[in-house]
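Pasting as-is:
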Amino acid sequence: MKMRVKHYDEIEEQEVTKANSTNTTIRWLISKGDGSDFASTRRFEIKVGGQIGLHDHPEDHHYYVLEGKADLIDETGKKIAIRKDDVVYIPPNEKHGIINTGKGTFTFLCVIPNL
């Protein structure tokens, strides 16, 4: 396998509907389809008023916030404000969601292991 270079806007943008998510899209920037056995990198965009609903999964998640402001929510409803340049770690099986609280699009990268 050789190195690959592509521009994110060449990658299909898909609507996120899992967990009652709204006004949210995902692009799978790097995945198994690119030859990555270890991890996948995704780019999420949550438009104003949008959210990713409360959910969990067996793999840990690493976030890097590119732009915007949002509340990260845990299973108790506790909210933690996150913004541009914040880094977030979510352990496996921990319920979480995100609500865009800003005046613009909330954009973040999410890296997950390929299970």
